[in-house]
């Protein structure tokens, strides 16, 4: 061992170990004290947060009744709007009555019966005449459907629903019959209308609602197997048996669908709201107060009686008489005041009761818009089309093989024609019984080429379905070799047998939405933007009208025939659906779309209050709406009146139907939290929540908004169900 190194003694080693142990214990003690201090601070912060939360809840509870009363006054716009709608419907009925244009009122059964009976009696109408008459028929059908859709359930009696649906079916059936009769009249003239080159007859008659393509096989040339209508790519590839038969091919393309059965609208007793207003109107006061004229006559009689008294009596009783007259006058004035007060109370009671009943009817109708059916629709066979999942677009293509009726024969200046009692007859293809050894080769499928209507948007290749007249349903079997030319909008397929066919698309192709935004534009005018996987729609709303502002498909502007047309909400929604722009979930949609379905009452309350605030505030989608449960909704909000509103950040708001709060979490946060935003409080309504940070001008615009505008915005929010389907 070197002399420079000292050997550590046992005592020193023990001392060092003791010092190390003391240092370790000291560090552990310091760590324990630090942990206890931090824990105490955390508990103190938590206690303060709980105390703050409790005080905020207490404060919210104290002012809840006051806030709900103010909200109830603001929501009086909904029954007021419904009252205006009823007055508008009554006025429209009166205007129709005084017009005396010969068209029936579709809501009055005797007028509809007379119209149908008179039209049934009209004979030998040409196709052009039937098309012209069909404009009125389609208008009547549309009016009847709107009556069933727009009228609140409480105002629809079951017999009224059955009556209107019966009128619709009778109009549809009679129109179809008239088309067949007109087609038969046209085919009787086939020989006189024959083409000089082919020797066969070809006719195209076009209208805004109907297009008729007719081809009559007069030459029966077995090599003439391809039928193409001039100027189009539409046509048939027919087998040999049809090319050599006395047949005609008819393609009737109707822009409307009178094939799919009507879904019945049922009105249960629970949905009926008692019309107590009618009982109240029957009540009349038992006694009437004297009028002003009666009071004047009473005073005059008193003066005359006073003049007739003798002078001695007059002097003797003058003071007494004056007092009596004054007492009578005071009593009459008091009676008049009491009567006026009773009349005012009665009128006030009538109005309040009417508004209450209207409010209940509106609330029931709004809840109906967000209703979800519990049981999934049942399709019995694999080939049966589920019309809750798919929707027909572009109308119906009626494909028929018709027996050629006897032709006109000119004889010595006369025209002879054989009239068959049975009328227009279908040619059965393939025949029900055949002696052919291989029927599949003898009766091959018929190839058909159709043009997809230009006003319809298909986001995916359309599917072809055919109508089963016996089963009263659409089916997918019996159709093969489907090819869709997207550029030319032509679809080609083969059919085992001809009949009505239609094109369908998934009704939920644009659901769920990727985002949505509701933004004010001007006084009583907003724009609702809904962005889906395929498209972006901008819907403008003003007063009680809606307008399709723009349609973007894959980032490019698409010109729609609906742009520039203002319509009330229900016809507007129907028009968008018919154009393939369906962003309106049905009661069955939750079976086909993965969504965070919200409690209906919460959704209705949120949409009503967003509509109330829409004149001055913007609302938007939030990803955190999917993170919270079904009893809460989360969305962005900011004031939309300021010039630099576009640059203002969105605040996130959570609403449970009876409590609104601003959230501390931001849209770009990583984790969702229900923590309250700093310097904010709870409120019972969205209105009072945004009032805390809103400008006076914004709140003034909210209070002065038009009731019809608020009702339309609410209807569109509920119809699109942006809170559940985004």
UniProtKB/TrEMBL annotation:
<feature type="coiled-coil region">
    <location>
        <begin position="9"/>
        <end position="48"/>
    </location>
</feature>
<protein>
    <recommendedName>
        <fullName>Dynein axonemal intermediate chain 7</fullName>
    </recommendedName>
</protein>
<feature type="domain" description="IC97/Casc1 N-terminal">
    <location>
        <begin position="23"/>
        <end position="223"/>
    </location>
</feature>
<comment type="similarity">
    <text>Belongs to the DNAI7 family.</text>
</comment>
<keyword id="KW-0175">Coiled coil</keyword>
<dbReference type="InterPro" id="IPR031826">
    <property type="entry name" value="IC97/Casc1_N"/>
</dbReference>
<dbReference type="Pfam" id="PF15927">
    <property type="entry name" value="Casc1_N"/>
</dbReference>
<dbReference type="InterPro" id="IPR023247">
    <property type="entry name" value="IC97/Dnai7-like"/>
</dbReference>
């Amino acid at each position: 061992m070197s002399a420079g190194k000292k050997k550590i003694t046992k005592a020193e080693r023990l001392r060092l170990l003791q010092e190390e142990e003391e240092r370790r214990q000291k560090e552990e003690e310091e760590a324990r004290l630090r942990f206890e201090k931090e824990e105490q601070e955390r508990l103190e912060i938590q206690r303060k947060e709980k105390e703050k939360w409790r005080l905020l809840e207490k404060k919210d509870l104290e002012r809840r009744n006051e806030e709900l009363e103010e909200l109830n006054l603001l929501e009086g716009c909904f029954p007021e709007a419904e009252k205006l709608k009823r007055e508008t419907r009554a006025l429209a009925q009166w205007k129709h009555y005084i017009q005396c244009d010969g068209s029936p009122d579709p809501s009055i059964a005797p007028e509809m019966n007379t119209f149908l009976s008179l039209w049934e009696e009209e004979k030998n109408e040409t196709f052009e005449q039937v098309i012209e008459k069909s404009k009125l028929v389609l208008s009547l059908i549309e009016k009847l459907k709107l009556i069933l859709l727009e009228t609140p359930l409480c105002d629809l009696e079951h017999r009224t629903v059955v009556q209107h649906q019966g009128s619709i079916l009778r109009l549809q059936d009679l129109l179809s019959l008239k088309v067949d009769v007109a087609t038969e009249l046209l085919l009787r003239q086939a020989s006189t209308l024959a083409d000089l080159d082919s020797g066969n007859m070809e006719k195209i008659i076009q209208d805004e609602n109907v297009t008729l393509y007719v081809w009559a096989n007069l030459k029966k040339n077995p090599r003439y197997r391809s039928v193409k209508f001039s100027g189009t790519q539409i046509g048939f590839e027919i087998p040999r048996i049809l090319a050599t038969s006395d047949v005609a091919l008819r393609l009737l393309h109707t822009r409307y669908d009178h094939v799919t059965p009507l879904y019945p609208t049922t009105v249960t007793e629970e949905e009926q709201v008692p019309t107590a207003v009618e009982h109240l109107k029957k009540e009349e006061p038992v006694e009437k107060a004297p009028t002003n004229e009666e009071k004047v006559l009473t005073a005059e009689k008193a003066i005359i009686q006073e003049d007739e008294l003798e002078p001695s009596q007059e002097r003797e009783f003058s003071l007494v008489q004056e007092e009596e007259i004054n007492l009578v006058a005071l009593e009459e004035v008091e009676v008049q005041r009491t009567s006026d007060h009773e009349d005012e109370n009665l009128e006030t009671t009538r109005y309040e009761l009417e508004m209450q009943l209207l409010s209940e009817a509106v609330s029931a109708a709004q809840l109906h818009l967000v209703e979800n059916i519990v049981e999934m629709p049942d399709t019995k066979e694999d080939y049966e089309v589920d019309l809750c999942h798919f929707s027909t677009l572009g109308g119906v293509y009626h494909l028929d093989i018709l027996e050629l009726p006897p032709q006109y024969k000119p004889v010595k200046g006369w025209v002879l024609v054989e009239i068959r009692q049975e009328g227009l007859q279908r040619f059965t293809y393939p025949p029900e019984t055949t002696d052919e050894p291989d029927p599949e080769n003898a009766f091959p499928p018929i190839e058909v080429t159709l043009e997809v209507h230009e006003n319809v948007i298909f986001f995916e290749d359309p599917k072809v379905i055919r109508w089963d007249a016996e089963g009263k349903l659409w089916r997918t079997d019996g159709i093969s070799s489907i090819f869709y030319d997207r550029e030319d909008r032509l679809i080609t397929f083969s059919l085992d047998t001809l009949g009505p066919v239609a094109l369908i698309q998934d009704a939920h192709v644009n659901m769920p939405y990727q985002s949505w935004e509701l933004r004010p534009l001007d006084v009583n005018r907003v724009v609702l933007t809904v962005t889906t996987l395929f498209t972006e729609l901008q819907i403008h709303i003003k007063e009680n009208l809606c307008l399709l502002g723009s349609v973007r498909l894959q980032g490019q502007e698409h010109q729609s025939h609906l742009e520039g047309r203002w319509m009330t909400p229900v016809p507007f929604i129907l028009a968008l659906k018919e154009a393939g722009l369906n962003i309106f979930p049905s009661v069955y949609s939750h079976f086909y779309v993965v969504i965070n379905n919200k409690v209906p009452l919460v959704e209705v309350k949120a949409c009503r209050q967003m509509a109330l605030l829409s004149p001055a505030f913007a609302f938007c989608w939030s990803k955190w709406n999917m993170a919270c449960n079904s009893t809460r909704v989360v969305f962005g909000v900011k004031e939309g009146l300021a010039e630099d509103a576009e640059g203002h950040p969105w605040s996130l708001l959570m609403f449970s139907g009876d409590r609104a709060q601003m959230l501390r979490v931001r849209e770009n946060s990583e984790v969702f939290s229900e923590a309250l935003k700093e310097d904010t409080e709870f409120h019972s309504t969205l209105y009072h929540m945004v009032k805390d940070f809103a400008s006076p001008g914004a709140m003034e615009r909210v209070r002065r908004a038009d009731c019809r505008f608020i009702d339309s915005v609410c209807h569109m929010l509920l119809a699109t169900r942006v809170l559940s389907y985004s």
